[in-house]
Design brief:
With 99 residues, the protein is mainly α. It has two domains: 30 residues; 58 residues, lambda repressor-like DNA-binding domains (434 Repressor (Amino-terminal Domain), Orthogonal Bundle). The protein contains six helices and no strands. It is elongated, with a radius of gyration of 22 Å.
Length: 99
């Protein structure tokens, strides 16, 4: 068998062992716990910011905030992750984004 074939065979055997629950030394990565929805209006009001103020402070456009709050658009995965960080530690985000 060729070197490539040997590697494919070895990979398949490792996958089978992993599927059986055997310890193969494989590292399993868990996805981040990003919520499916973020209540942006509640977050913004908790921080006592207008739509424009929230947008300016955290790098969004006022139109994006308005669209998310009205439900005409939904923030994507990375935006929801960022909003979650803002919700949990707004001061750290402010510090990180300060000039």
């Amino acid at each position: 068998m060729t070197k490539a074939g040997d590697r494919i065979r070895e990979g398949a055997l490792d996958a089978l062992a992993f599927a059986r629950g055997e310890d193969t030394g494989a590292i399993v990565h868990q996805p981040a716990n990003v919520p499916d929805e973020v209540d942006i209006k509640a977050l913004r009001e908790k921080l006592d910011l207008s739509q424009t103020g929230f947008a300016r402070e955290f790098g969004f456009t006022p139109a994006a905030i308005r669209n998310w709050e009205q439900g005409s658009r939904k923030p994507g995965l990375t935006t929801r992750a960022f909003l979650t960080v803002i919700e949990r530690n707004p001061d750290a985000v402010r510090e990180a984004l300060s000039r």
